[in-house]
Amino acid sequence: MSPKNTHAHPSPESLDELKKSEATFRAMFETSAVGIGIMGLDHKIKDVNPSICRMFGLTREEFIGMEPAVATYPEDYVKSSAQFQELLDGKREFVRDERRYVRKNGEVFWAHVTMSVVRDETGAPLYMIGMVIDIDEQKRVMGELQTSEARFRAMFENAGIGIALVGMDRRPLEVNDSLVRISGRTEAELLETTGIFISHPDDVEIDKAELMKLVSGELNSYQVERRYIRKDDTPYWVRQTISAVRDQDGKVMYLVVLVEDIDQQKKDQEKLRESQARFKAMFDNTSVGIALTGLDRTILQVNEAAARITGYPLDELKELNPVDLALPEDQHVADEALKEMILGKRDSMTVERRYMRKNGDIFWGRVTYSLVRGLDRHPM
Asked: Disulfide: which of 59, 111, 317, 330 matches 353 by Cβ 3.0-4.6 Å?
């Protein structure tokens, strides 16, 4: 009696299915945008698809029989070799990693790699399949973003002016230390409030029109001066430069607000206006004649009292050289003292001389000269 055949031959239907499966796999292998390589247990490449050939700049023939070490960046090969062994030993089902490779032209690029092992029915490894995606451009962009973020973070944290990232609900998302100092509030207090809540009541909607234009895209940025209220209820002035950060569709995600403390500047300006108002009141209303002249002695400004004293109308007096009003023999009385004053040897001088009114009358006048100097101490 002949022994029973324990190995059944595959049916024609099964063979057809295998052929279809093989054709499907081959089509996927050849047309995939992902680089695919098949590596034997001897660590040599058995087959590769067109995508991986384009990625490395190698032909299929050049790949066949090559070991991955040839195209792997040296510093990354030790790690990848250890991962391969863990796959073969069954310690991992697959490996996902990012590593560097070297193209045929010597160019180094980053790739995302997934490695897996194909095993037989008994679990013994047959070969490895590697899928490689070129992520070099992604890595470059990410590196640039990280560098940009580091620069922005350094600027944000160390800037001498206040900076806030503000949501469209006007609630701060992030604030720097300078803004904390300017506002007189803690970081936590600023993050828990809104710009409206701490604004001076008269300035809440001061930039409403500009903000609408910024959101609509009519403006890229704008600047505004406004008052806020500190924690102790004292108002303070700031100058804000406001710009928008938009998504890919142009929609505003949040605002970047640069805040300059101009409170002292505003107070100084107010003091200057008050000083100017006082000087103008004195200049216009005093009974003493006053004239502001250039170093060439041309009259820049003169008051009504000087016009009354000399008998000249203001418009005529402004066209005259004050020296020409003095009698000829008195015109050069103060020349030497004037030179000393310009040279910084004295701050002022007083001289008495005779003048002639428009009607010909002669009168004695006592004149005090003072020199106006700039911050550099030079005559203005």
From this structure: 330
Q: What is the pLDDT of residue 3?
A: 46
Same domain, 250 and 321: no
pLDDT digits (tens, 9 = 90+) for 140-159: 888 888 888 888 888 888 88
Give percent above pLDDT 70 in the chain.
93
Global confidence as pTM? 0.54
Say if CB 277 and CB 263 are below 8 A apart. Answer: no
Q: What is the DSSP letter of 83?
A: H
Question: Residue 199 carries which side chain, given as an amino acid letter?
Answer: S
Strands 108-119 and 125-134: antiparallel
CA distance linking residue 299 with residue 312, whole number of Å: 13
Exposure string (b/e) for 346-380, b if CB count within 10 Å is 16 or more? eeebeeebbbbeeeeeeeeeebeeeeeeeeeeeee
Q: Is residue 115 a contact partner of residue 35, using CB atoms and an 8 Å limit?
A: no
- Expressed as residue numbers, the domain containing 224 is 159-262
DSSP state of 373: B
* Cβ contact 157:176 at 8 Å: yes
- b or e along 303-337 (b: 16 or more beta carbons within 10 Å of the residue's beta carbon)? bbbbbebbebeeeebeebebeebbeeebbebbeeb
Rounded to whole angstroms, how far apart are CA atoms 19 and 182?
A: 76
pLDDT tens, 274-295?
Answer: 888 888 888 888 889 888 888 8
Same domain, 332 and 300: yes
How far, in Å, CA of 264 to CA of 357, rounded? 48
Q: Say how far apart CA 199 and CA 224 lie, in whole Å.
A: 13
Residues 25-74 pLDDT 10s: 778 888 888 999 999 988 899 999 999 999 999 999 999 999 988 899 98
Question: DSSP of 241-301, one letter per residue?
Answer: EEEEEE-TTS-EEEEEEEEEE-HHHHHHHHHHHHHHHHHHHHHHH-SS--EEE-TT--EEE
Which amino acid does the sequence have at 121?
A: E
Sequence length of the chain is 380
Query: Is 311 domain-assigned?
Result: yes
Q: Of 75, 105, 136, which closes a domain?
A: 136
